[in-house]
Amino acid sequence: MNKKAIVFLLVFAMVIVACGDTTDDAAVEATEEEHDHEGESTLEQVQERGFLKCGVSTGATGFTEVGDDGSYSGFDVDYCYAVAAAIFGDYSKVEFKQLTSAERFTALSAGEIDVLIRNTTWTQSRDTELGNDFGPTTYYDGQQLMGRVADGLSNSSTVADIDGLRVCTNAGTTTEKNITERVGLAGGTIQLITVEAFSEAIDKFIAGECDIVTTDGSGLVGRRAVNDALNDWVIFPTSPISKEPLGPTYRSNDSQWADIINWTVYATIIADEYGVTAANVDSADLEANPELGRLFGANDGELQTKMGLSADAYYNVIKQVGNYDEIFSRNLNPLGLFREGGDNDRWVDGGLIYAPPAR
Ligand SMILES: N[C@@H](CCC(=O)N[C@@H](CS)C(=O)NCC(=O)O)C(=O)O
What we know:
- The protein is of the alpha/beta class.
- The chain has three domains: 1-39, no CATH class; 41-139 and 246-273 and 310-349, D-Maltodextrin-Binding Protein, domain 2 (3-Layer(aba) Sandwich), CATH 3.40.190; 143-242, D-Maltodextrin-Binding Protein, domain 2, CATH 3.40.190.
- Helix content is 40%, strand content 15%.
- It has 14 helices and 14 strands.
- It has helices spanning 3-19, 25-36, 42-49, 75-88, 104-109, 124-128, 174-185, 198-206, 217-226, 255-273, 290-296, 298-305, 313-320, 324-332; strands at 52-57, 65-66, 72-73, 94-99, 115-116, 132-134, 139-141, 143-148, 166-170, 191-195, 212-216, 233-236, 244-246, 249-251.
- Strands 10-9-11-8-12 form a five-stranded mixed beta sheet, sandwiched between helices.
- Strand 2 (65-66) and strand 3 (72-73) form a beta hairpin.
- The radius of gyration is 22 Å and the shape is globular.
- The relative contact order is 0.14.
- The structure holds glutathione.
- Glutathione binds next to helix 7, strand 11 and strand 13.
């Protein structure tokens, strides 16, 4: 530990004693580590450490799942793997940190993680007040509600139909703010019950302790898909009550790091535009498609090396993790979530998934 770090820790310890407060060991360690690496870029810190620290959710079907063997999978998890593939040429060099909604931004600002990829909605206050910057939206979502047919609810119900009901969701989310605002506008009142992890909201829902659960539509579809108890539950309204653009989040004013994350996402989108997949990337015609050539390392890979990455960084992303469509399809199609005709379709097909040119 250098001198600065020791002084910092002493001052920090004095503040804690003075306030009679307790603190989170992990946050102290993370801050200590940050000070040890003062002057180093995020990329240098990650490269020196040898792995990426990626913040994911405590469990969101299709987005972050942990198998019995401790292995991670899901749409968000795949984007963590993609960033590791870009940096190390090895997608597996990731340490996942599961975070609840309420914990996520503190963990990011304390340096406990390098990037947050956790069904996180890009909002103005999170962008401007909380010290975050946001990468490209990887999944365009919107908030919906789930309730029981037995309570007279159907998929054509609206927020006006939940007056007087008990509504469960997790804390620290756009979800809790949106529902309160929308119910108020509809002239109703609800009893809002907030829990720490969304799985607790589902447990309460099943136990009959709440009449409605609400979160991003994908979260509801995911839970319903894997839970027999929820088969006769309906998701409404058909048009979501909010916009929830989900994507990677990182500390603000970290331009090189932002570029690395952003272009990892764009690389998966560009590869999808050309139909280049993990299986066929080695036979892609890079001369006939110069944009692909540049993305995959032509001209000594100057587009990538100028960002601090190896020339073949984005080739590795596609080879090891796949393009946007592969990532979407393998994780979300099994739940009944499809791109076709929706916001997550390619821009050329009427959707919003679009990348700037690799040039
Ligand atoms: N997109 C919203 C909601 C995010 C959220 O917490 N979603 C739930 C439902 S998918 C979740 O991830 N739960 C997992 C957890 O609580 O860790 C936000 O950014 O505030």
